[in-house]
């Protein structure tokens, strides 16, 4: 990578009588050599090519240095490698491994690098559904949303008998005057309220929303779109919708009942529900007092609200007494509570991966449109790393590793890169501790491709 640092040597304390010297004269070196696994993963699932196909390029072809596929791939690979800011690409564009990933080893013009800098990528992120005079690259939101579901469907060799779709809303704190800025009392700050839909580890939707809404707002539309796309491929699959009490709304439950979708929602505690399970709570309290450990009882009953529900629905009340306090909760199916409903907590780990490891909450652009596109870029980076985990790491110790751990252990590898007429040789660090798992991932991805 080009550098303007001095080639002078820097001296340090001697070790066993030998001088210790350092200098910026190692040649073309990358700290992200392991990322070639991301390229192999992309070839196996065809992510970047199809994601780039969701954009339309209105620029003059003879004046274009960086194609849309290069820009899209560079942004997705950069996020997967931990580079959250566009500013990072002003030096990352010279990285030889990034050049390999985007499939472009040299620029056509002398004043350009193989990959794009921050300004060009910024214009991509500011693209609109319809091109304008100053924003000639546009994108198709519906195509991007459909691609997430397509990749999920293609991950299965045959239709499963049942799938569980998890819904959840989370906070995305904002610190400027972005469009759609509202204060949220529960989260205690100005934020967006994105809606996520997962099926296991597969991300099916990431919808950016203002925070001055009910947590379930727009859920019917998102779930309806996803279910229609799934049933077009798998018409007989049983679909279960799972969410917390913030989604136990009449509109969503009625839609599920009309659309042959089973649902498992939490119900918020209220006085009438607690009275309904008062006897069970008393029994749990007695048992907990006698044994000194938490006790739990269930009651299965039909119940409706005073005015918001259109019909009576089956509810299971959980009467629990723990640490000297009653903890009544309600869910929509007794037999599914502990094994199925409680499992929805795993979705929160996936959201943490998206936000903490892949910077899905880096929504600092001025407009919600640009921030939604940023969220989709982060989502595609998650999809890419999940494909690596699913296809390449299933036989390794990293089969259940987080995206951050995969990046640290398999992608962040120092290497000397030599580019000749006949080949690109990436000489990775000989002492890398995860060589075996890296090799297994390479073999598995080759077989998948």
Share of β-strand residues: 15-25%
Give Rg in angstroms. 26 Å
DSSP helix count? 16
Low-confidence stretches: none
- Average pLDDT across residues? 91
Structural class: alpha+beta
- As a percent range, the share of helical residues equals 25-40%
Q: Which shape, going by the Cα principal axes? A: globular
Largest sheet: 9 strands, mixed
Measure the end-to-end span. Answer: 31 Å
What do these coordinates show?
Helix 3 crosses helix 14 (368-392). The chain has 16 helices and 19 strands. The chain has helices at 36-45, 47-52, 68-80, 89-92, 96-102, 118-125, 141-154, 219-233, 250-258, 271-276, 278-291, 337-341, 345-357, 368-392, 403-411, 435-448; strands at 10-15, 18-22, 29-30, 55-57, 137-139, 162-169, 172-173, 182-184, 189-192, 195-199, 202-207, 238-243, 262-267, 295-303, 313-322, 325-326, 329-331, 415-419, 424-428. The mean pLDDT is 91. Among the domains are: 10-140 and 367-448, no CATH class; 270-327, no CATH class. The strands form five sheets. Strands 6, 10, 11, 12, 13, 14, 15, 16 and 17 form a nine-stranded mixed β-sheet that branches. The protein has a three-stranded antiparallel β-sheet with strand order 3-18-19, with no helix packed on it. Strands 7-9-8 form a three-stranded antiparallel β-sheet, with no helix packed on it. With 449 residues, the chain is α+β, with helices and mostly antiparallel strands.
